[in-house]
Amino acid sequence: xxxxxxxxxxxxxxxxxxxxxxxxxxxxxxxxxxxxxxxxxxxxxxxxxxxxxxxxxxxxxxxxxxxxxxxxxxxxxxxxxxxxxxxxxxxxxxxxxxxxxxxxxxxxxxxxxxxxxxxxxxxxxxxxxxxxxxxxxxxxxxxxxxxxxxxxxxxxxxxxx
Length: 161
Prior knowledge:
Blueprint (H helix, E strand, L loop, with lengths): L1 H48 L5 E2 L5 E6 L11 E10 L4 E4 L6 E4 L5 H6 L8 E6 L19 E10 L1
Antiparallel strand pairs: 1-2, 2-6, 3-4, 3-5, 3-7, 6-7
């Protein structure tokens, strides 16, 4: 009898915990969607202000392919080597490679926007990515990048393996 009572008490606790978790998760999803909408407005306005025409990916990022590169494209497991410049919508550069310097990483270790954008070009390709904060650094400050910032990356895919 005691075992049954203990089992019911745990089940009751789990339901309350599940309800709290479900509400927290629903609130979090709502915040993400609201921020995504705000970011999309910022990106669209940036494109208009700079007279740029970008393609909208089904993920919600925008991109402009300056050079498509060759027919071989990286995947999530590729070690990519890039030259890049990352900046905010106010043109503040927050990171970049210098001269012949390159940056290398496994694609799956990079932010979501790069994981979506880099496979759109081949070796030697160049792409301009306009990333809602969800696909960049999200709702956290990252160095001199404020939380929920739209990020723009100008990337050249030098090589990958």
